[in-house]
């Protein structure tokens, strides 16, 4: 009952959001208003470690652009000067962070509230269920099988793989009969994967080892003879891990054979920078291939695996629209389709017909379709209605059939179902409810809790409301605000957003942010343009040459928080991951007066060279191409590294990254931090926190997440004036 790979999930393997799990603080001051203490900025300038400044200048269309810290792009594993610079910065930052008074309080809170059961991907095989489980302080999830009698047995436990918990269990799939599980191993935060195979009955690994997988799904052949996966060629000796990646391709691995015998299934040699991935329909008959240049738009091809020739048939090619397969009913393939600015609809195509004629099943609605799934003889479709989830039912002919009642204002993280089986599952979470697995009977509409986590935090004290504000150009933008019930007066507020690649930020449970709320602060999640809350048009309005709209939305949100007296004038902190880190850097440069503290994590900070590293070329469609003059001018106008403004008082800034991040390479953060420390920006600190054996966030062990989160929250509390209880 694993859902068919979708284009959305294909893109999300690249664009990671913030780490959301669950946490609350242990003890806080009495009263309904958060206590605000004076930030008391330092009275004398901080003397930062020295960073060499070179005279590198590059010309773009007649414009000379200095790049004095390009040398920080060196690989610290082979570049001793870069490694030494990191070590000095790390020691400088550690000394400062260890003195923060609220750090231990936040750390204890995070440790306590990680102690709950988190269930991940779920797959059914006959009368058995496979799923991931992470309990308490476990660094990595374990893979569990639940037998028919309800007994659980651990199949894979990554705790035995490394002492520091940095070797992680990632993508996995069980064969359709449950005989085997193929699973990917991630080491030290890297995006590279090694795939291994477990014999479920024996509880032992087979001899199968597949290396150099990356940005991959695992899709088993219907007969269990092997699986499809995606990989790059083995890197040549001496080639830096940060180098650009080319020739991504789909292969088939047959169980019991060496990887050298794997069969090439699909590749695009004429377009070597493309990403290619494949998934199978629930009946195993059709392989659906996505081939993408930019993580948003993809060609869609289908292979009928019952045919001897197995030649890919192109369904969608070279279009600006967005297509994603749902599954099949016989020879009819169902897809979601977004054409131009539409909010998506559900269509079908008969693969038995010689021509690909798409027929509308569920037309575009007044809300944004985020995903659809075939379960039993129904379609379960998730919609965003003003950035809030709603799940609707449709018959297979597209006629409406009611809704699925959800517990409240929250997020549907995943839906699991398959054609012909009335049993489905979905995972739901909100600010006041950790991820909970619900079993749903498609025929009767009845739902029940299948796995409910126990948590010691008093989440009933959290209130969530939705507000709307006007951005610079008058656009109405939604925002969710979470704080303790009965809170009076302005309180220190942590604002966050993402606004890129069509990714959405609905309200959900956050292990990092809950302690801030329960200490008396507020959290604001801003649904800026560039995200997908209102469909493709909302994404396009914050993409490419319109990227400034994302930043204008965040600036307007910070202004609204102050004007509406949710936050005091000097008590707003801003936080974001990855593309959200870019937003933090850009917004702080443009309006440093709005923020007391800034927390850019694994951010894209050099917008003129992002495409030079690893998979950065895949982001050209999102941000623009620096070698095109119009795009160059736009990118230069907001690139965080290039727009630090000396002479203006900046907020306190804690830049965080992972030394092994080969998605957004840490050089982005290194160069940005060097530019900050070199400029006269006032007395507040600008610091760099670098995690060893950690990457972009995926697979990061719980212990590292807790330590990093405690540092970030304590830093924000220090400079917003949030008084942290013991």
From TrEMBL:
Domain Peptidase S9 prolyl oligopeptidase catalytic, chain residue ranges per copy: 508-721
Q: Which GO terms describe its cellular component?
A: cytosol
The organism sits in which domain of life? Bacteria
Lineage of the source organism?
Bacteria, Pseudomonadati, Pseudomonadota, Alphaproteobacteria, Hyphomicrobiales
- Official protein name in the record: prolyl oligopeptidase
Q: Which PROSITE patterns match?
A: PRO_ENDOPEP_SER
Which keywords describe this protein according to UniProt? Answer: Hydrolase, Protease, Serine protease
Q: Which reaction does it catalyse?
A: Hydrolysis of Pro-|-Xaa >> Ala-|-Xaa in oligopeptides
Enzyme Commission number(s): 3.4.21.26
Q: Record's InterPro entries? A: AB_hydrolase_fold, Pept_S9_AS, Pept_S9A_N, Peptidase_S9_cat, Peptidase_S9A, Prolyl_oligopep/macrocyclase
User: Which GO molecular function terms does the record list?
Assistant: oligopeptidase activity; serine-type endopeptidase activity
């Amino acid at each position: 009952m694993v859902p068919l790979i979708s284009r959305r999930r294909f893109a999300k393997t690249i664009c990671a959001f913030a780490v959301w799990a669950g946490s609350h603080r242990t003890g806080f001051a009495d009263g309904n208003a958060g206590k605000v203490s004076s930030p008391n900025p330092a009275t004398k300038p901080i003397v930062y470690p020295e960073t060499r400044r070179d005279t590198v200048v590059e010309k773009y269309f007649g414009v000379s652009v200095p790049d004095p810290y390009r040398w920080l792009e060196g690989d610290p594993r082979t570049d001793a000067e870069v490694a030494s610079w990191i070590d000095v910065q790390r020691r400088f930052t550690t000394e400062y962070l260890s003195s923060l008074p609220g750090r231990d309080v936040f750390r204890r809170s995070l440790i306590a509230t990680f102690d709950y059961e988190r269930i991940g991907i779920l797959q059914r095989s006959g009368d058995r269920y496979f799923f991931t489980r992470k309990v308490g302080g476990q660094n990595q999830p374990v893979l569990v099988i639940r037998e028919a009698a309800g007994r659980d047995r651990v199949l894979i436990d990554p705790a035995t793989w490394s002492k520091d918990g940095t070797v992680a269990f990632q993508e996995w799939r069980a064969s359709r009969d449950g005989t085997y599980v193929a699973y990917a191993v991630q080491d030290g935060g890297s995006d590279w994967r090694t795939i291994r195979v477990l014999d479920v009955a024996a509880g032992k690994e087979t001899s199968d080892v597949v290396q150099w997988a990356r940005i991959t799904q695992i899709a088993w052949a219907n007969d269990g003879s092997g699986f499809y996966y995606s990989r790059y060629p083995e890197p040549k000796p001496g080639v830096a891990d940060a180098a650009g990646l080319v020739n991504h391709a789909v292969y088939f691995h047959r169980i019991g054979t060496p990887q050298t015998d794997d069969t090439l299934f699909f590749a695009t040699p004429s377009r070597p920078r493309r990403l290619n991935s494949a998934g199978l329909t629930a009946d195993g008959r059709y392989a659906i291939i996505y081939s993408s240049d930019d993580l948003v738009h993809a060609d869609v091809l289908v292979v009928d695996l019952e045919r001897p020739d197995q030649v890919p048939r192109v369904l969608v090619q070279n279009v600006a629209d967005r297509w994603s397969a749902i599954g099949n009913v016989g020879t009819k393939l169902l897809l979601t389709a977004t054409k131009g600015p539409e909010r998506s609809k559900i269509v079908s195509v008969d693969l038995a017909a010689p021509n690909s004629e798409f027929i509308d099943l569920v037309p575009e609605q007044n809300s944004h379709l985020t995903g659809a799934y075939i379960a039993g003889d129904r379609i379960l479709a998730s919609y965003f209605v003003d950035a809030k989830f709603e799940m609707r039912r449709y018959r297979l002919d597209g006629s409406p059939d009611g809704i699925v009642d959800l517990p409240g204002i929250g997020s549907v993280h995943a839906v699991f179902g398959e054609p012909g089986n009335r049993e489905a599952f979905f995972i739901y979470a909100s600010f006041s409810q950790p991820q909970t697995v619900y079993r749903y009977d498609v025929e009767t509409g009845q739902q029940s809790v299948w796995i409910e986590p126990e948590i010691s935090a008093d989440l009933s004290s959290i209130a969530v409301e939705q507000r709307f504000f006007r951005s610079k150009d008058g656009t109405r933008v939604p925002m969710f605000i979470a704080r303790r019930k009965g809170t009076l007066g302005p309180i220190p507020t942590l604002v966050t957003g993402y606004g890129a690649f069509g990714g959405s930020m609905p309200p959900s449970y956050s292990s990092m942010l809950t302690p801030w709320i329960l200490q008396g602060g507020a959290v604001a999640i801003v649904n800026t343009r560039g995200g997908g809350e209102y469909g493709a048009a909302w994404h396009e309005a914050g993409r490419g040459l319109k990227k400034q709209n994302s930043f204008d939305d965040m600036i307007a949100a910070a202004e609204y928080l102050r004007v509406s007296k949710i936050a005091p004038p000097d008590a707003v902190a801003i936080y974001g991951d990855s593309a959200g880190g870019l937003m933090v850097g850009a917004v702080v440069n443009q309006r440093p007066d709005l923020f007391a503290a800034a927390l850019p994590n694994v951010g894209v900070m050099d917008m003129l060279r992002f495409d030079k590293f690893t998979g950065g070329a895949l982001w050209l469609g999102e941000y623009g191409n620096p070698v095109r003059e119009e795009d160059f001018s736009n990118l230069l106008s907001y690139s965080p590294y290039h727009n630090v403004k000396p002479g203006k008082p900046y907020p306190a800034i804690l830049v965080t990254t992972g030394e092994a991040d080969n998605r957004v390479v840490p050089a982005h953060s290194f160069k940005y931090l060097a530019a900050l420390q070199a400029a006269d920006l006032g007395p507040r600190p600008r610091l760099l926190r670098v995690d060893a054996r950690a990457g972009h966030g995926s697979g990061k062990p719980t212990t590292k997440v807790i330590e990093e989160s405690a540092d970030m929250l304590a830093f924000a509390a220090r400079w917003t004036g949030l008084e942290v209880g013991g």
